[in-house]
Amino acid sequence: QGTEDIVIGGSIPMTGVFAFAGVGINAGIQDYVKITNDAGGIKGRKLKYVPEDTGYKVDVSVATFKKITSQNKVNLYYGDSTGFSKTINPELERNGAIMMAGASFATELNDPKKYPHQFLVGPDYTEMFGILLKHIAQEKPGAKVAFVYSDSEFGRDPIDESEALAKKLGLSVPVKIMTPAGSVDVSTEVIKLRRAAPDYTIFHGYILAPIPEFITQGKQMGMTSKWMGTFWTMDSSTVMKMGPAGDGFMGVMPYRYYYDTSAKAPMLDKIRAMRPEYQSTAYMQGFLAAMLFTESAKRCLEAGKPLNGTNLKAALNSIKDFDTGGLIGVPVTIKGNSIPVGRVYKADMKAQKMLPASDWITL
Amino acid sequence: MRIGTLKESYIADAALFDSRTQKTWLAVAAALLVLFPFMASDYWLYLACLVSINVASATGLNILTGYTGLVSLGQAAFMGLGAYTVAVMETRLGTPFLLNLLAGGFVAMLGGIVVGIPSLRVKGLYLAIATIAASFIAHFIFANWSFTGGTGGLSIPPASLLGMPLDTSFRLYWVIVPITIVMLLGAANLFRTRIGRAFIAIRDRDISAEVLGIPLLRYKLLSFGLSSFYAGVAGGLWAYFFRVVTPESFPLLMSIFFLAAIIVGGMGTILGGILGAVFMTMVPELLKLVFDLLPNSAEYTVFLSPVRTIIFGLLIIGFLVFEPHGLAEMWRRVRRFFHLWPFRN
Amino acid sequence: MDWAYLFEICLTGLSGGGLYALAALAFVMVYKATRVVNIAIGELLMVGAYLFFTFASMFALPLWLAIPAAVLGTGLLGAVIERTMIRPLLGEPPISVFMVTVGLASVLVGLVEMIWSADQRRLPEFMPTQPIMVGEAFLAPKVFWGAVVAVVFIAAVLLVFRFWRGGVALRATASDQAAAYSVGINVPRVFSLAWVVSAMIAAVSGIIVGSIGGISSSMGVFGLSVLVVVIVGGLDSVLGALVGGLLIGLVEALAGSYLGGEYKLLATFLVLVAILMVRPYGLFGTHEIERL
Amino acid sequence: MTQPSTDHVLAVNNIEVIYNKVVQALRGLSLVVPRGQIVALLGSNGAGKSTTLKAVSGLLALEDGTLDAGTILFNGQSTAQHAPQQLVRAGLSHVMEGRRVFEDLTVEENLIAATYALTGRPHTAHGAPKPDFDLVYEYFPRLHERRKGLAGYLSGGEQQMLAIGRALIAQPQLILLDEPSLGLSPKLVEDIFTIIARINAERGTSMLLVEQNATVALAVAHSGYIMENGKIVIDGSAERLASDPDVREFYLGMGGGGEAKSFKEIKHYKRRKRWLS
Amino acid sequence: METKHPGGSPAAPLLQVDGVTLAFGGVKALTGVGFDVQPGSITAVIGPNGAGKTSLFNTISGFYRPTGGSIRFKGQDITRIPAPQRARMGLGRSFQNIALFRGMTVLDNIKLGRHAHLNTNVLDALLYFGRARREEAALRADIEERIIDFLEIDHIRHAPVSALSYGLQKRVEMARALAMQPQILMLDEPVAGMNREETEDMARFILDVRDEWGVTVLMVEHDMGMVMDLSDHVVVLNFGQVIAQGQPAAVQGNPEVIKAYLGSGDVHDLRRKLHASTPANAAGVA
Ligand SMILES: Nc1ncnc2c1ncn2[C@@H]1O[C@H](COP(=O)(O)OP(=O)(O)OP(=O)(O)O)[C@@H](O)[C@H]1O
Ligand SMILES: Nc1ncnc2c1ncn2[C@@H]1O[C@H](COP(=O)(O)OP(=O)(O)OP(=O)(O)O)[C@@H](O)[C@H]1O
Ligand SMILES: [Mg+2]
Ligand SMILES: [Mg+2]
Fold first, then answer.
1. Which ligand is nearest to the CA of E222?
2. Domain ranges across chain B
């Protein structure tokens, strides 16, 4: 066994449209690396984290990957987007030494055959919808659920499969509305939505806009739908920005929020000790990614296997009923490329907090 | 007969590289290009390939916009056409690498010609905006057609040449760079003949060109076709280089990037297209290096991307305001300064 | 056929088109006087919205102060832009100036990201929230009031051009700058004025658009639709801005609701191409005089 | 050379002009325009006639030219500190080479645009100075007929009329006229020059007239200058110039005996001018 | 270059304009214009400004489609043939408002004139081998030896045209028109803006082109001295109609032509006539 550092490379969107997430992810990885190193590293080997900013542009991410991997012996990598994950996949297979996780929850990536060296740090988007639909089916059997999503790979990702799933769960999907990327004025879409009179509306493929406008106009028109979102909308600070429209907004979240003290969570305590101010869900994502990286590397080294993509991934898949220290409320098992666990949270504008609205749901 | 110069013949007068100085420097450059892959890291090789692809595409746009005066904001879309053609042929037909590239070029060329049809009636910036329409229509097709893999796009196995998979930057370098050089020579030759002259005439004043014997529609379409052929081949190379194409791979911003490249480099000169593409591709990378050199650079990282965006804009503005003829003109001035250095005699 | 639905959609589309028309007006002002195709129009909107955000949300100024402050601030920016990057290019070919505005767009986006970060934000609510009912049809209040502001502005500009010789000065300057000088027109002033007014209209437009859709550094995308509008209407026509805006608003609404969101852009661009094929200078644009 | 005095509406003294920082177009040129007179400026292509006018009216900067030395006095005051539009408003109008009408504007709008020249004019006994469109239409009835038409579609002569008409709106003290006869029919040349002379005679407007048609130019001018290569080479009264043998040969096309030469008899392309040697 | 006479008759005109009518919206630029151009002649078209002379040229060279009438060149009806093809057939021209290509050198501008007679295709051009190379070399030699030499513009051949003075630009226009290998050379106001001396040079070139190259010349010009001295046949247009044609001397004496176009010709004592009574004259001459 060598004593050289184990390197985690990172194409991190510290700037650009995804900066709000990148900054959190970066801090999360950093913190977990520090915790590990302070505890003596992995079997005597230190972790080294080498991030670079990408501005959330695929070509820059690729260049960053090339730069970091040609300057370091990299075994673990964090990538910033679906596009990057797909673009770099052939290179990962060729390189062979690296296991990668990233900020993308694209359904396509949840395929161990096509993406043998990658994994998702949570449920994929279809699974997120699954969790929401399961919750809806329980809360109001036979409900009408509208899907509103953006015209992008991100937005379209879970729609078709989720519609099928909704049917299976006895729900109906009276309308699916796709909005062009970057559109601001959604009044015609709202009219269409109102006509469908859904009981639930799930937004996907957005961060914030145009969700608040949808809700405001919908409410003005007398809609009674409940409004829901997926992971990247669900950070506490994002939902709070919705203002009055955001009250009661629900969505799926695989991790506990920073301020969630409802159950024992030693890791969250540690995070709160390290960083007294609120940390985003993206932070949690980065933190958990680093945790799983470390666990896989540890298992690899313990088994005396060289660190490479195949071994690391096998180690990851050997994880069973793993305790994340409370970041995820239930023990996790990683069979394939994702962690299909989550919980529905609901915004409470008075408390300025996201509060649990369901139990942990495992698919 | 008085020619007034010391050229031996008119042929020599029209040669691309005539002086001994030029030829020597050319040899030096060629040697550097050959040695480069053996000295550079994977990262630099990656950049070299990217630069080379961009040079090819920028040169194509230069033919259309710099020489023929037809402003196009569709260059990325034409690259996309080429890339998708290559992707589809490679994944579904498994035809050989070079054939796919050529097909990519021709499909893009066809697209270019179709987009060029309004150019007879629609002029100037009206036309430029109309070419944006082409980008969006192309995007729509890529994203909504199952044949092209929808929003998810297509993944492409490595190209193989003579049984060797071209799966590293090092191997791709030996294909991409020579192809680019061939395309550059082609473009340079073009402007020594009646075809290139006709393009320039159309740029300068199309209605009088017509009366002087140049069929406008044919030549405008030819220019669109050639330019998008270059874009298509560049897009094909791009596809083999990144090995995945998605509808988002060729955004409008990329078309703007190429337009910026030829402006910064110098419109209407081959050298300008080269210098511009190299410069604009390298600036963000160099900027990153500069940032890394700053004391406690980590603190400023959040500013890197905005700064990059600002610098991209400032470069365009700065060149237009202070050096409208671009890097090519600066280069000429430097050359005049050194004159025949080091072969002064 | 659900006529009520169609009516509701058309109404909403037309009002949405009003927003396009206002931004298009900002564009046309500059083009009319300087022949500059300002592709950064969306970014100017963005700056106006961000300034409003800063004054209203961060400095907590009252609305009646925050709006004029944002509008004036953007006007000032317009003046600076004109002075530093447009005037030095007097007499350069149109594509050069066009590209300068491309650079400008990039600089503005970078600045906004640097100062305010790229995060999406919401503007404070300031428009009436009482829904507008036209018969059975429902119209979102913000969209309605936005359209009203747009129409008022356009009507005002049309009147001004009709009764004020400044309109002639504007067009004269655009037609031949040297000749404009030679008849005593203060060309630099015309240039500044056009840019300042345009930037101010853009700011108003940006505040309205931002209050509907929220603001972010990618808000400039709105400018793309505006570009379509002005091409359809004719680059130098105020009336064209109005008609083009309404038309594109309508087309988008119809395509979006009957075909699906992915068809919105496609439909507008197809309309654009169709109109250009029939009328190469848009619906109301001035034909370039070409003589041998 | 006459010394500048207050009788001179324009006095140009030893000016040098350089284009694009390299091409020197004027090399120490001096001339004066006495108040109320027409002064002709003749010279071959590229001699710098238009450049001289542009230097006076301040339009040089638009073409990347700079006035590097010398002074220009309009009504005894230096023009150096004034922007072109200020000079126009002070009464110095420039009718540019190639007519330069506003093509996208109608004839009438062209004239309206020209009213900007009256901005800031001191009030007269009759109040603020008013643009006199009728005056223009009276001199050029043809413009009245076409007043609603786009200027871009006027014929060459009509455009020339419009350009002069625009200058008239400004009620100037001095008009710089650059080749008003360019491309005009003989009759129109005669008409335009008659009107030029009338404007001068009736309104006392001074003019600096650049012309290639030396015959008409010397016919209406009081005095004249001939320039070559950015310098004045001959000056004098119109009569004196018209009788100078070189001027007669090179500008008026007369043979040695005073009779008009036929173009058919010209055998050589190149001859030497005596004043250059 | 000898002009061929179709049908063997030496009197067959090279160009026949017959009843040509052209309208722009409401404006009638040409109405039933008809005249012949004899091979080897110098024919002048004169007429007041806006009479339609340039429009006539544009119609002959194919830039405008006439609304009526026909144009025959070398006996062939070319009314429906597009402009570039007419250039190839041997219609060469220069432009009233100089239309040189400002982004090119003088040499390239002239080479461009030959465009229609060259055969290089795209593939040849990209490779620059074989045909393209040969053709370019031959073209360069021909232009150097025949045109540049003839018009004495060898010192500016590599200069960008934008740096040339007006007179030289006119000369380059002429060179480009000659490079078109025209059988009929159409010159639109070749000496406008030139002084007497330069006009004489140009007149000499025109005569030589006709005499030494055998090219037929059709020109529009307002310089009556030159028109009367050079031309064999004069066509007078007014308001788009032919009001007179014939020998120069005959046309010059035609009262209608004098009224519409020539004027009294009595400009010499314009000043004396007008200034005699005005005070300005009293100030004397500088
Ligand atoms: N914009 C310019 N840039 C560079 N050189 C110029 C420019 N304008 C004029 N020149 C040069 O300055 C010299 C004088 O030009 P100018 O136009 O004043 O001549 P001119 O006497 O009016 O001639 P013409 O009778 O042909 O109009 C010429 O050599 C010309 O090439
Ligand atoms: N493209 C056009 N559209 C509309 N009217 C036109 C157009 N071209 C020319 N005309 C009109 O046709 C008439 C003839 O113009 P043309 O240019 O042929 O005159 P010309 O005889 O050449 O005059 P000049 O001697 O001034 O050059 C004019 O009244 C002109 O306004
Ligand atoms: Mg001149
Ligand atoms: Mg004419």
1. 2
2. 19-251
Residue D232's SS3 state is strand
Q: Give the separation between CA A329 and CA A161, rounded to whole angstroms.
A: 27
Q: What is the pLDDT of residues B38-81, one digit of tens each?
A: 998 888 999 999 999 999 999 999 999 999 999 999 999 999 99
**How many Å lie between the centroid of ligand 3 and the Cα of residue D40?**
13
Q: Does any domain span residue D21?
A: yes
User: Which residues are found with C-beta within 5 Å of the ion, ligand 4?
Assistant: E 54, 96
**Does residue D171 lie in a domain region?**
yes
CATH of domain E1-90+182-286: 3.40.50.300
Both structure tokens of A34: 């520090």
Helix (H) / strand (E) containing B52: helix B42-61
Structure tokens at A198: 């859904």
User: Would the CB of C291 count as within 6 Å of ligand 2?
Assistant: yes
Nearest CA-CA partner of B139 in B233, B256, B254, B250: B250
Q: How far apart are CA A306 and CA A309, in angstroms?
A: 10
Q: Is E278 in the pocket of ligand 2 (CB under 6 A)?
A: no
Neighbours of B292 (CB within 10 A): 12
- ipTM for the assembly: 0.89
Contacts of C140 in chain A (CB under 8 A): 187, 190, 217, 220
Contact assessment for residue E206 and residue E230, using Cβ atoms and an 8 Å cutoff: yes
Tokens of E113: 């004139």
Asked if the structure places residue D221 within a domain, the reply is: yes
Residues A260-306 pLDDT 10s: 888 888 999 999 999 999 999 999 999 999 999 999 999 999 999 99
How far apart CA B11 and CA A135 sit, in angstroms, is 80
Greater confidence (D256 vs B68) lies with B68
Residue nearest to atom 5 of ligand 1 (CA): D19
Residue with tokens 């919401």: C122
Which of ligand 2's atoms lies nearest the C-alpha of C291?
A: 1
Distance (Å, rounded) from C-alpha B227 to C-alpha B70?
11
Interface of C with E in 72-91 (CB under 8 A): none
Query: Which of D209, D215, D201 shows the shortest CA–CA distance to D180?
Result: D209
Residue count of chain B, please give it. Answer: 345
In chain D, the number of structural domains is 1
Q: Which domain holds residue D227?
A: 8-243
pLDDT of residue D276: 42
pLDDT at B343 > cutoff 60: no
CA angle E235, E236, E240 (to 5 degrees): 115
- 3-state helix, strand and coil shares in percent for chain A, rounded to the nearest 5: 40, 20, 40
For residue D37, what are its two tokens?
Answer: 């007179």
CATH code of D124's domain: 3.40.50.300
Nearest CA in chain C to B311: C107
D1 Cβ below 6 A of ligand 1: no
Q: How far is the CA of D17 from the centre of ligand 1 (A)?
A: 11
Structural contact between residues D67 and D108, judged by C-beta atoms closer than 8 angstroms: no
- Domains of chain E by residue range: 1-90+182-286, 101-181
State which H helix or E strand residue A342 sits in: strand A341-348
> Is 80 exceeded by the pLDDT of residue B191?
yes
Residue D255 lies in a domain: no
Closest CA to B154 of B230, B235, B51, B57: B235
pLDDT in tens, A89-101: 988 998 899 999 9
pTM score above 0.95: no
CB proximity list for D258: less than 8 A, separation 6 or greater:
D248
